[in-house]
């Protein structure tokens, strides 16, 4: 059978062009399926956009479905001597705080060593002992650090810094006449202050002079505890991060001076959460509006115009929002009770004055309204659960996405089956065209032969 590239050679007809036209006409049958597949893909993309907006709204609802939000406290400080943070155990109140002294870390610089930095200082393995704390009190704490034979001043510094729990940071200082081993306590306060360093016998190699520990050229600055008073009560702290002086409050001392601390309900966090909830719902409504819009002038339509899943989602959410919750005596049962109204266009609107009044004066009732006493006891929990159901495999949105995906799969199967049928039809045409081309070529050859014979007969009759 002749190939498609040789069609028409025998007959002189443009059979290749004719076969291409037939192929194009047959493949035109695939275009409706392609359009249907593209339509479903556009829908899935639109469903994904809607799902994202629902997730944003659910996150905003979940933020309100946390009772601890309505129990949180905030701090405000008048003055520059400290900063403060309140935890859940803090109590509302006002405190006058006087910072008399900040906590400092102790430091110790050894006597001067007139050596090179990389010069070996020890002949054998040695021990360096660091001493901490106020020597006039209980026995000072000490830490032993092993120093290898042949260690230089740099090696000693590195051994101290590499020792787990050494309690100090070591460095080398050049005072213009020689080097000093300088130690800074890792923590503030008297008890953590580095007070002395001693060396085991024969620590230094022969010929190396060292002016010794304290009293022989060493420079010591003892660390101090912070001193402050809260409402006139004196407090001593080893750290500038003071916990426990005021229950549930952490004080961060920054400088000496007076400050006034107020611990009060964190109305800002609650207001931001409620505002975020309203904004997230309105953003969801805006997304739905764009996906279902229709402009008569330009005859453009949203990708989900008339979609039943969208109508179901809107209806479910509106029902929960408008239905409210059962409230106890003095509680809130409807969004309108706290200053949030459902407008005719389906969006939410906040009465700022009413909402601020509720947040300032009745956070317990607000907590009961949004968070309730269980995961779905309040309005926020009910809305979050509704969204979970809607996007689930059996929900309106989850089912719509699954349905669109199934339709694409079926359409792909139809497309493949029809494409195979078209290929078989074109192959049949190609075979038939090849046979036609061969038949016409044979007829042309017979015609040429007969013509030659008639020409020969005419010539012979002419000679006779």
From TrEMBL:
Alphabetized InterPro entries for the sequence: Flagellin_hook_IN_motif, FliD, FliD_C, FliD_N
Subcellular location: Secreted; Bacterial flagellum
Coiled coil: 401-428
Keywords of this entry: Bacterial flagellum, Cell projection, Cilium, Coiled coil, Flagellum, Secreted
Pfam entry (one): FliD_N
Similarity comment: Belongs to the FliD family.
Subunit structure: Homopentamer.
Protein name: Flagellar hook-associated protein 2
Species classification: Bacteria, Pseudomonadati, Pseudomonadota, Gammaproteobacteria, Oceanospirillales
């Amino acid at each position: 059978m002749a190939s498609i590239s040789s069609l028409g050679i025998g007959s002189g007809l443009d059979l290749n062009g004719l076969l291409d036209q037939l192929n194009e006409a047959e493949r035109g049958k695939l275009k409706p399926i392609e359009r249907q597949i593209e339509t479903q893909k556009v829908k899935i993309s639109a469903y994904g956009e809607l799902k994202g907006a629902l997730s944003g709204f659910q996150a905003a609802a979940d933020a309100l479905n946390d009772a601890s939000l309505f129990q949180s406290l905030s701090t405000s400080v008048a003055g520059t001597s400290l900063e403060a943070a309140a935890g859940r155990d803090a109590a509302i109140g006002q405190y006058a705080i006087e910072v008399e002294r900040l906590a400092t870390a102790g430091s110790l610089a050894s006597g001067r060593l007139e050596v090179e930095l990389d010069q070996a200082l020890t002949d054998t393995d040695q021990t360096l002992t660091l001493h901490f704390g106020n020597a006039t009190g209980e026995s000072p704490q000490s830490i032993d650090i092993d120093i290898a034979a042949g260690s230089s001043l740099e090696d000693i510094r590195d051994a101290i810094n590499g020792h787990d729990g050494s309690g100090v940071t070591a460095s080398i200082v050049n005072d213009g006449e020689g080097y000093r081993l300088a130690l800074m306590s890792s923590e503030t306060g008297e008890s953590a202050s580095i007070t002395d360093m001693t060396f085991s016998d024969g620590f230094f190699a022969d010929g190396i002079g060292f002016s010794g520990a304290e009293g022989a050229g060493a420079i010591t600055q003892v660390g101090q505890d912070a001193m402050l008073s809260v409402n006139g009560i004196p407090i001593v702290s080893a750290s500038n991060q003071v916990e426990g002086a005021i229950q549930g409050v952490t004080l961060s001392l920054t400088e000496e001076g007076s400050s006034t601390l107020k611990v009060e309900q964190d109305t800002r966090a609650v207001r931001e959460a409620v505002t975020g909830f309203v904004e997230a719902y309105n953003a969801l409504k805006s997304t739905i509006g764009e996906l279902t819009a229709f402009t008569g002038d330009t005859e453009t339509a949203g990708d989900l115009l008339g979609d039943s899943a969208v109508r179901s989602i809107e209806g479910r959410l509106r029902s929960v929002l408008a239905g409210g919750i059962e409230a106890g005596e003095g509680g809130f049962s409807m969004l309108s009770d706290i200053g949030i109204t459902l407008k005719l266009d389906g969006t939410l609107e906040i009465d700022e004055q009413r909402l601020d009044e509720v947040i300032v004066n009745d956070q317990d009732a607000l907590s009961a309204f949004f968070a309730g006493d269980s995961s779905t006891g309040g309005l926020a929990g009910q809305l979050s659960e509704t969204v979970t159901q809607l996007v689930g495999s059996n929900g309106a949105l989850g089912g719509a996405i699954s349905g669109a995906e199934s339709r694409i799969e079926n359409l792909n199967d139809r497309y493949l089956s029809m494409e195979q049928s078209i290929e078989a039809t074109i192959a049949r045409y190609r075979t038939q065209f090849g046979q036609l081309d061969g038949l016409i070529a044979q007829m042309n050859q017979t015609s040429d032969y007969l013509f030659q014979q008639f020409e020969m007969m005419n010539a012979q009759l002419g000679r006779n």
